[in-house]
Design goal:
By secondary structure, the protein is mainly α. It is built from five helices and five strands, in the order αββββαβααα. The strands form two sheets. The protein has a three-stranded antiparallel β-sheet. Strands 1-2 form a two-stranded antiparallel ribbon. It is elongated and about 90 Å long.
C-alpha cells in the first residue's frame, strides 16, 4: 500500500535488451542499454521487419518496421533504438544534433506503442503535408504555364511587328519602281486643261 506509482515497467524479453545486429556497435554499454530498455526509457531492440504492417511503425533512418519507436524530444520524430545508438551512444556525454530538425543535444524518450488517437493525428498531419505539397506543385505548374504564355505572346508580337515593318518597307520599294500608290495620287497636283474659249480667243 505504501508503494508510489511510478513509470510502469514493461515486460521485455531478454533478447530484445541488446542490439540485434543491424549495425556493429563497438562502444555500447550493454548493461546500461539493458537497464534503459527495462526501465522503459528506450524502445526494445526488436528486429526490424522489411514488410509494412498496420501495427508497425517505420524508422525513417533504416526504413525497417518496428512494433514501437523512440521519439525525439525536440520534434517527436520516431527512431528505432539501434539507429539511435548509431546517432548517440548512451555511454558518451558528447552533444549530438537531431538527425531530423538539427536541434543540439539530441535526446529521445520512449512512450510505448502509439495509441489509435496518436496514429490518427499522425495520419491527419501527413495528409496535410501531402495536400500542401500538391498545392505548391500546382501553383508552380500554373506559374510556369503563365510564363510560357507571356513568352509566346511577346515572341508573336515581335513577329507581327516584324511582318508589319517588312510589308511597309516592301510597299515603299514597290512604289519606287514606277507603280502608283494612293499617296502618289493624292500628292500629285491636278493640272487643268486650258478651256477652248481661251485658246480660241
Amino acid at each position: 500500500m505504501g508503494n508510489k506509482l511510478g513509470r510502469r515497467r514493461q515486460v521485455v524479453d531478454e533478447k530484445y535488451t541488446r542490439p540485434q545486429g543491424l549495425y556493429v556497435h563497438k562502444d555500447v554499454d550493454i548493461k546500461k542499454l539493458r537497464k534503459l530498455i527495462l526501465e522503459s526509457k528506450l524502445a526494445p531492440c526488436y528486429p526490424g521487419d522489411e514488410d509494412c504492417c498496420c501495427d508497425l511503425e517505420e524508422c525513417p533512418i533504416c526504413f525497417l518496421y518496428y512494433p514501437s519507436l523512440n521519439r525525439s524530444r525536440c520534434c517527436m520524430k520516431g527512431i528505432c533504438t539501434e539507429c539511435f545508438l548509431q546517432m548517440k551512444n548512451p555511454n558518451t556525454t558528447r552533444p549530438t544534433q537531431c538527425p531530423f530538425c538539427k536541434t543540439a543535444n539530441y535526446a529521445v524518450e520512449y512512450r510505448g506503442v502509439k495509441t489509435k488517437e496518436e496514429k490518427g493525428m499522425e495520419q491527419i498531419e501527413e495528409q496535410r503535408v501531402i495536400e500542401a505539397k500538391i498545392r505548391i506543385r500546382q501553383q508552380e505548374l500554373q506559374d510556369d504555364e503563365e510564363r510560357m504564355l507571356k513568352r509566346q505572346e511577346s515572341s508573336s508580337m515581335g513577329i507581327a511587328l516584324g511582318e508589319v515593318e517588312s510589308s511597309v518597307s516592301s510597299s515603299r520599294s514597290v512604289e519606287g519602281e514606277g507603280n502608283v500608290s494612293f499617296q502618289d495620287l493624292c500628292a500629285t497636283p491636278m493640272v487643268r486643261q486650258p478651256s477652248h474659249r481661251r485658246a480660241n480667243g
